[in-house]
Write a structure and sequence with these properties.
heterodimer, A: mainly beta, seven-stranded mixed sheet, four-stranded antiparallel sheet, about 55% strand, globular, B: mainly beta, about 50% strand
Chain lengths: ~120, ~110
Amino acid sequence: EVQLVQSGGVVVQPGGSLRLSCAASGFTFDDYVMHWVRQTPGKGLEWVSLISWDGGRTHYADSVQGRFTISRDNSKNSLYLQMNSLRPEDTAFYYCAKTGVKWELLPGYFDYWGQGAPVTVSS
Amino acid sequence: DIQMTQSPSSLSASVGDRVTITCEASQDVRNFLHWYQQKPGKAPKLLIYDASNLETGVPSRFSGSGSGRDFTFTISSLQPEDIATYYCQQYENLPLTFGGGTRVEIK
């Protein structure tokens, strides 16, 4: 059974940093592109970042470029999102998601999602 | 960026009704358009991928069609457990983008 289990939510001050984690099981982790997607009541679902199956390629939404870093450790079947210089507008529920197509950055679709983790950026 | 315009933003229908949601892309996304269902407090769930392919385990009352810029998602006979918000998403070009969602309620 495919499972993506995320680390818990947290409150962090503006300008602060946070690392999210996503532990994968039930599939060959290093065959698939992985993503972070966030959701806010006001802006809906927003794609944040992706990383290729081998970690060699990454892409980011303009809104997080230069502040967030996606990474993975295939030996630990884990995905990470390092979030720096956090802003109040980064407040959201963050999901990790797996693509349904092996070894393809594009195109694809999200066939499994983590349970999500709330991130609140507030003083 | 490819903008995804989903309509309606909400609808109310009776059990057994046919429900249709549309999604329009601002540019051609070929058939790389997917539909997700999200229930309150839960992560989105893939229902339809590549415009018209039913994900394994998803009831056959759900279907999708379209290509290029215009897509349709249909629930052939609305059931109480279908109460949720539905999203379209294009995965043809970065940044990946979602529609604004359609909240489906029972009348």
